[in-house]
Amino acid sequence: MYFRRRIVFPAILLLAAFAWLHGCARPDQGAKNPAAANQPANSHATIVFITDFGTANDAVAICKAVMIGIAPDARIMDITHQVTPFSIEEGARFLYGVTPYYPAGTVFVGVIDPGVGTNRKAVVIKTKKGQYFVVPDNGLVSSVIDRDGFDSAREITNSSWMIGDAISSTFHGRDIFSPVGAHLAAGWDYTLVGPVVQQLVRLTPKTPNITDKGIEGDIIALDDPFGSLITDIPGDEFKKLGYAIGDRVTVQLNKKPFTAPYMKTFMDVAVGDPLLYVDSRGRIGLALNERSFSAVNKITPPGTIFIPKKGAPLKGK
Is the dihedral of CA 281, 286, 290, 293 positive or negative? Predict the structure, then answer.
């Protein structure tokens, strides 16, 4: 009998301790904890911010302060605040390049807004990927929608989503876009921001002209700070022209001939030498190894480029 008691008694203590520990753990379990149950699912959402405000003034810092005041747990990431002033096309290009690397639920706040203070709409756009875009209705998200699909859009009219009643006519980044983005990140219901928008303004950027003689496109930007030229010619279309790695390609830049080898990367040529290459976004670019193509050749966007089919002359394009 003594032997049996020595075995059973510790077992009972062990079971009791397990039950006590299990009971202590239960209040902290998500749905069983009232505080956790009331926490918005996306309370730690990411806000991704892009503007043409520059960094020489306090505008970006003010917008971020507004966001933090509303959604203190949100992460605020910057794409850039150096978009060429008023260039909706450039802002759209940066958004298109960045958005694939962020998950559903991300809130993008984009303020490239030459129409600020006019009757242009301020909107929230949701894509089929589940990302939100708080932007002026000026086409800034057109290319993203073309790729990811359009779910819905709302006009921002609900003043409780804004910074207050005294809305500036020139700083909607502070007064409308930043607080709306922060409220979304804090878990507010998107459908309450305002009425449904049935049709958005479309941005229709130029596309290269492809013929049996070659491809005519545009120099659309510089890869700063390196000074390489970015064109709108897709690398896949260029490859159909017949060139192989190492071939010398004579193109027309602003209607003047320029010759460079087609290479994979910059160090494939000597320092200071030019190359034509497919950049990381899949577009044709022109660069100098460890030098600025733009500065050396005095070429800045906008500009034109024509690439002929391999073996075809430049004349008569």
Answer: negative
Instruction: Give alpha helix (H) positions in the chain.
Output: 2-25, 34-37, 59-70, 88-98, 142-148, 172, 178-185, 235-239, 293-297
User: What predicted TM-score, i.e. pTM, was given to this entire model?
Assistant: 0.80
Residue 165 is predicted with a pLDDT of: 74
Residues of the chain with pLDDT > 90, as a percent, come to 81
Per residue in 198-246, pLDDT tens?
A: 999 999 888 999 999 999 999 999 998 999 999 999 999 999 999 999 9
Taking domain 46-192, whether its CATH number is 3.40.50.10790 is answered by yes
Annotation: CATH topology of 209-308 = Elongation Factor Tu (Ef-tu); domain 3 (2.40.30)
